[in-house]
Amino acid sequence: MKNEKKIEKEVLNKQSQHWENTFSRKKDMFGLKASYSAQAAAKKFKNEGKKKILELGGGQGRDTIFLAQNGFEVYVLDYCETGVEAINEKTEAMNLSDSITAKCHDLRDPLPFADQEFDACYSHMLYCMAFTTAELEFLSSEINRILKPNGLNIYTARNTNDADYGTGIHCGEDMYKVGGFVVHFFSRDKVEHLAKGFEIDEISEFEEGGLPRKLFLVTLRKNNN
């Protein structure tokens, strides 16, 4: 695999505090409107009758709120206490406590749920955070474990066509520290590599933000064989 520089684990481990500081300074950092990917995922989930959703890396909750308002039961995990607090505040203010459960959790550890507990999993730019490939392999296996048969995993990740790819400080593998944030950029080969235990329903591309960021939108279906 290219870019086999030694992984800068100390740099990766400091990302949690960087996100805590950023969320503390910037309320609704990503805006209030649901992302394109959340809207696409909600449509897919509705069409297939998926109800119980696990969201990973919920940030400050813009997609969490959207999913709950569209009738889904949402469990959301994030490793930033500040983000979880923001989600809980919005949940209470919008009377969505029956639809949203938010907890702080490091996704490098096993997911705190039973086997086959969820209909679907959703995450927006969680995969392209400061995770090594080995950590992403483990996370993917955990997502597969907690999904019901025929369960969906829909995620997004910035890809190697993104203007920031190859810029900033190289942190090992395809990870670069840009503007203080470590980004793990995805190739199609990486998407396919991380799909073990799943069938790939679709890999599409879209753009978001002012750069713009270039992302994959990946839809995986649990392989029941």
TrEMBL record:
Coiled coil: none annotated. Residues 53-151 form the Methyltransferase domain. Keywords: Methyltransferase, Transferase. It is an enzyme of class 2 (transferase). Its EC number is 2.1.1.63. It comes from the Bacteria. Pfam families: Methyltransf_25. One of its GO terms (molecular function) is methylated-DNA-[protein]-cysteine S-methyltransferase activity. This is Methylated-DNA--protein-cysteine methyltransferase. It comes from Halanaerobium saccharolyticum subsp. saccharolyticum DSM 6643.
